[in-house]
Write a structure and sequence with these properties.
The chain has 259 residues and is an alpha/beta fold. The chain has 2 domains: 6-207, 2-enoyl-CoA Hydratase, Chain A, domain 1 (Alpha-Beta Complex); 211-258. Helix content is 49%, strand content 15%. It is built from 12 helices and 9 strands. It has helices at residues 31-46, 68-73, 82-91, 95-101, 118-124, 152-160, 162-171, 177-183, 195-207, 211-224, 229-244, 247-258, and strands at residues 6-11, 14-19, 52-57, 107-111, 114-116, 128-132, 136-138, 174-176, 188-190. The strands form 2 sheets. The chain has a 6-stranded mixed β-sheet, sandwiched between helices. Strands 5-7-8 form a 3-stranded mixed β-sheet. It is globular. It starts with 5 loop residues before the first strand and ends with a helix.
Length: 259
C-alpha cells in the first residue's frame, strides 16, 4: 500500500499509524490523508494477526484539526454552497470516525502534542488515550463559529459524560495534559520522550490476550452504548456463546486449572 500522508509500522500484533504532515500540524482536511487513514483501518480490520492499533502524530502536534486557511478562503472541503459543504463533510472527514468506529481492534491514541478541534475528536475516537506532558486538548469549534462536524458530539460525551463535554465544547477552553488526566479525558500522562514507549508497552500488554476475543470484547462494549440492560445482556449471551466454543477459551481454562 502506497502511503504519502501517514506512516504505518507493525511489530508483531501491534501496529502504529502516524499522521505525517507535521508541516500542517497534521490537519485532517486533506482528502489524501483521510483516504489513507481509512485504508489503514480497513487493512488492520482484515488482518487477524493485528491485535492493537496505536495512533499518533509526527512533529510537535497530534492534530490541529481542520485547515483554518482553507476555511477562510472557502477552499477544498470548505468550498461550495451549504449543500456542497455538507457533502464535503460526509465524503471527507466523516469517513475517519466511521473507519475507526468500525474497527474491532482496540485502539490507543498516543497524543504527542496539541489535539485541537477535530484533533481532539480524533483522540476521542480511540478506545484509550495517553498524553505527553506537551499535549493540549481543545473542543474549540464554537470559537471559530462552527460546531463539531466530525463526530465530536458523539464521542466526547461518551468519554467525559454529558456535562463536562458540554463545558469544554461551549467554552472552547484548551486544557493541558494534567487537566485532561483529572477530568478523565486521558488515562495517563508521560514525559514526551516516553510517550510512544509507554503506548507500545500498553499495546503489547493488551496484545497478550487472544486476538479474536479482544475484537469481540471491543465490539460488545461499543454496541452496548445506548442500549437497554436487557439488550446488552442478550448481546452478551450471544457473544459469550461464541467465546465458549473457541480454542482460546479452552486453552486458557486448561492453563488456569493447571495452576
Amino acid at each position: 500500500m502506497q502511503l504519502n500522508q501517514v506512516l504505518f509500522e507493525r511489530s508483531g500484533p501491534v501496529a502504529v499509524l502516524t499522521l505525517n504532515r507535521p508541516d500542517l500540524r497534521n490537519a485532517l482536511t486533506d482528502l489524501e490523508m483521510i483516504g489513507e487513514i481509512e485504508s489503514v483501518c480497513k487493512m488492520v480490520q482484515e488482518d487477524d494477526l493485528i491485535s492493537v492499533l496505536v495512533l499518533t502524530g509526527a512533529g510537535t502536534a497530534f492534530s490541529a484539526g481542520g485547515n483554518v486557511k482553507d476555511m477562510l478562503n472557502k477552499e477544498n472541503m470548505f468550498a461550495g454552497n451549504p449543500a456542497q459543504v455538507r457533502e464535503n463533510y460526509r465524503r471527507g472527514i466523516q469517513r475517519i470516525p466511521l473507519a475507526l468506529h468500525r474497527l474491532d481492534v482496540p485502539t490507543i491514541a498516543a497524543v504527542n502534542g496539541p489535539a485541537i478541534g477535530a484533533g481532539c475528536d480524533l483522540a476521542c475516537m480511540c478506545d484509550i488515550r495517553i498524553a505527553s506532558e506537551k499535549a493540549r486538548f481543545g473542543e474549540t469549534f464554537v470559537s471559530v463559529g462552527l460546531i463539531p462536524g466530525d463526530g465530536g458530539a458523539f464521542f466526547l460525551p461518551r468519554v467525559l459524560g454529558f456535562s463536562m463535554a458540554c463545558e469544554l465544547a461551549f467554552t472552547a477552553r484548551v486544557i493541558d495534559a494534567p487537566e485532561a488526566l483529572r477530568i478523565g479525558l486521558v488515562s495517563e500522562v508521560t514525559p514526551p520522550e516516553l510517550l510512544l514507549e509507554r503506548a507500545n508497552e500498553l499495546a503489547r500488554e493488551i496484545a497478550q490476550q487472544p486476538g479474536r476475543i479482544l475484537r469481540l470484547c471491543k465490539r460488545l462494549f461499543q454496541q452496548a452504548q445506548g442500549k437497554s440492560l436487557e439488550e446488552v445482556l442478550e448481546l452478551s449471551a450471544a457473544y459469550q456463546a461464541l467465546c465458549h466454543h473457541t480454542e482460546e477459551h479452552d486453552l486458557a481454562v486448561r492453563k488456569m486449572l493447571k495452576k
